[in-house]
Amino acid sequence: MLTLKNEFIGSARHIWTLFKKDLLLEVRQQYTFYGVLLYVASTIFVLYLSMGEPEAAVWKGLFWMIQLFISVNAVAKSFLQEGRGRLLYFYSIAGARDFILAKLMFNALLMLVMSLVSLFLFMLMLGDPLPNPFSFVLLSCLGGVSLSLVFTFLAAIAARAQQSSALMAILGFPLIIPQLLLLNKVSNIAFADVVQSGLKEMVGLLIGLDGMIIALSIILFPFLWKD
Amino acid sequence: MLRQNWWKIVGVFLLLYTFIAGFLGEVPAKPILNETIRNLYFHVAMWMAMMVFFIISVIYSIKYLRSNNHIFDIYALEYAKAGIVFGSLGVITGSVWARYTWGAFWSNDPKQLGAVIALLIYLAYLVLRNSMTDIDKRARIGAVYNIFAFAMLFPTIWIIPRMVESLHPGGMGNPALSSDDIDSRMRIIFWPGAVPGWTLLGVWITSLRIRLSIMQEQKM
Q1: Domain spans of chain A, in order of start
Q2: pLDDT at residue B146 in the model
Q3: Do A161 and B132 touch (CB under 8 A)?
Q4: How large a percentage of chain B has pLDDT more than 90?
Q5: Is some CB atom of chain B closer than 8 A to the CB atom of A209?
Q6: What mean pLDDT, rounded, does chain B reach?
Q7: Closest residue by Cα to residue A178 from B163, B166, B81, B173
Q8: How many angstroms away from the CA of A174 is the closest CA of chain B?
């Protein structure tokens, strides 16, 4: 019992160290953050130039599509930036499970920030058709985290296959459609002026899906990493 | 057991029974559906066969990860391919059915969309495998993706389409295959005839393909 507890604390410390390492790299290099920020800003600006202020249905559709592309771009780097030698080093000191958990956490945080930034820019440039912005803020946070989880796992697969982000997009777009459909449905319900049923079930399903993806990542990642 | 002949003969006879009894047998007279209800023996049965193949495929992927036996990887790949073929046939027969009952081949119904997404997920599996040349790496990463894809199949075709409005039976308190929809005359053809018949045909095709690719591998 005591060893189990110690093991748990040890692994939590590993995860925290790896997470902190990613965060520190990000703060020092400031490459991903500003790179993706520029990407977000210019994409939304192009949208603004070509669409003006679209109506609510178009706004929502565009928002989730842009989230999807941000997620691909932000998360793709997470595994590709690590060299082969360094990965071996992490593997030997921390183990695969701690490593993937740290990556999941970091990417979720990154996408959380990016979702909020892009939501702000969307409201600034493309108008504000939201009847209740607060719930949509929560929803976009949930959406950003969900997207980041799926793409983190796919980035791991793509990195092992030694392919660039092109493969990740090919793998990811079919897999992400269920979540995007759900997010769109939930935001439809959240957008409507009249109260509609089924909101709780769909949000619950979304969270359940996230839990399933985390569990699958933890189970499957060690197999991916063995060489 | 798979090398024996009896189950192939059984499969052929079951399909013959499905075709003959399915086209000549009595069916309940339903408005709108009319005689198209006979498509049940093809469309629904092929989807069930597809599900069986995807389940077999994921079991072999798990077995591969546990044992690193290369044969299991070939099994997983070929059963996934069989599932894709039967899934495509299910979509095609379904859209022909939709033409005569819903009025159009394609109407962006949630069930139709879910079916296409499921096929896209599995086609990505084939693309992923082809992107790698190293056999061991291809097998291992393919197996990992196959398990992930199978888990994502459930929300795609079993959960989400049931939560939204759909023209398709099944879900929204409108279960297909209940006694309101089909009666015992159809059930006696569907369950013992069509479902195992199509499944056995798919297993036969797949076992031939598996033997072919094992032979090709040994030649190399």
Answers
A1: 2-225
A2: 96
A3: yes
A4: 54
A5: yes
A6: 88
A7: B163
A8: 5
Which residues of chain B lie closer than 8 angstroms to A176, CB-CB? none
- Angle of helix A199-225 relative to helix A133-160, nearest 10 degrees? 20
ipTM of the complex: 0.89
Q: Please, are residues B149 and A175 in contact by the beta-carbon 8 Å criterion?
A: yes
Distance from CA of B134 to the nearest CA of A (A): 9
Taking only the tens place, the pLDDT of each residue in B93-121 is: 999 998 988 888 998 888 888 899 999 99
Chain B closest-CA separation from residue A156 CA (Å): 10
Residue A40 · residue A71 · CB < 8 Å:
no
Contact A65, A147 (CB under 8 A): no
**Residue matched to tokens 């061991």:** B136
CA distance A114 to A17: 23
Q: Where are the domains of chain B?
A: 6-219
Residue B53 burial by Cβ neighbours in a 10 Å radius (0-12, 13-18, 19+): buried
**Residue B170 pLDDT > 70:** no
How far apart CA A170 and CA B128 sit, in angstroms, is: 9
Give pLDDT tens digits for B121-140. 999 999 999 888 888 889 99
CA atoms in the 13 A half-sphere facing the CB of B130: 8
From A121's Cα to the closest Cα of chain B, the distance in A is 31
* d(C-alpha B60, C-alpha A92), whole Å: 29
What is the amino acid identity at position B197? G
CA dist A57 and A51 (Å) reads 13
Return all residues near B65 (Cβ < 8 A) that are at least 6 apart.
A223, B140, B143, B144, B147
Q: From the list A171, A223, A226, which residue is nearest B124 (CB)?
A: A171
In this predicted structure, the answer to whether residue A1 has a pLDDT above a threshold of 70 is: no
Residue B173 has pLDDT above 60, yes or no: no
Instruction: Answer yes or no: do B145 and A212 touch at CB < 8 A.
Output: no
* A218 interfaces chain B, CB cutoff of 8 Å: no
Q: Which residues of B touch A (CB under 8 A)?
A: 65, 113-114, 117, 120-121, 123-124, 127-128, 131-132, 137, 140-141, 143-145, 147-149, 151-152, 155-156, 159-160, 163-164
How many pairs of residues across A and B have Cβ atoms under 8 Å apart? Answer: 73
Residues of A in contact with B160 (CB under 8 A): 178, 181-182, 205
Spatial neighbors of A78 by CB under 8 A, at least 6 apart, are: A22, A103, A106, A107, A152, A155
In chain A, whose CA is at the least distance from the CA of B135? A161
**A214 in contact with B, Cβ within 8 Å:** no
